[in-house]
Amino acid sequence: MEILIISGLSGAGKSKAASFLEDMGFYIVDNMPAAMILKFAEFCAGGSGRYDRVALVYDVRTASSFDELFDVLDKLKAMDGVCRMLFLEASPETIIKRYKETRRRHPLADRTDSLEEAVEQERALMEPVRQRADFIVDTSRTSTAQLRAQLLHHFGTETEQGSMAVSVTSFGFKYGLPLDADLVFDVRFMPNPFYIEELRPQTGLDKPVADYVMGFRQTTDYLKRLEDLLAFSLPLYAEEGKTGLVIAVGCTGGHHRSVAVAHALAEFIRGQGYQVSESHRDMSRG
What we know:
five-stranded parallel β-sheet, single chain, alpha/beta, 2 domains, elongated, four-stranded parallel β-sheet
């Protein structure tokens, strides 16, 4: 069993982190008092595997005594399984800006005279928790995608850490662009098998059509440049935290050229070690 305690400063991104961890398979419990954590852990350990990965959000709202939390942490770490703590923080200026943008009240607003004072007081109060953290993430200049990438790095399974699903689809421009496309490549400049009578009823997945499309210098040169571009950019997309990338290749009707090129790109990307799905949106249209 894996237990992760998510703590940190209000406005530093605990809720966003919890959402990402939930997507990664963690069972999330928000605002759980320290006194209940040990009982909950024992309940999870006796389960059928549904609660093998649990993330508990603990912040200043639930803090009655940090000594109690630390005692629970020590007991959890002595149990079978893994227990770690993630602490999220951000600069006072960043937290104040976020609170002003959302117009939410700070948890310590009732005991302080200003938002700035509340932020500073919470930082001082939570410092002992920060000192016990296994991982500290400063979100001051961290984008949503970068936060997700850091969580995958620290807490993702081996499969999740190396995963970015790539979808390659062909389409016909006369039917419109795929709405979910991240990258669009236009291959209408290539010689068109549509004008070859015996090739017209076939598709880019048929060998005679693929051989025809790939038999031209401009096709092979263009495909080589696309492969170089993707070999360079795909690792950067994955590093940035992107979980899915949709590549669309279009020709006029989506039957021949785009299908052949999309199929070739899918094979290349698969050879680079990525999960790849291939589809041909308009190949069966009249």
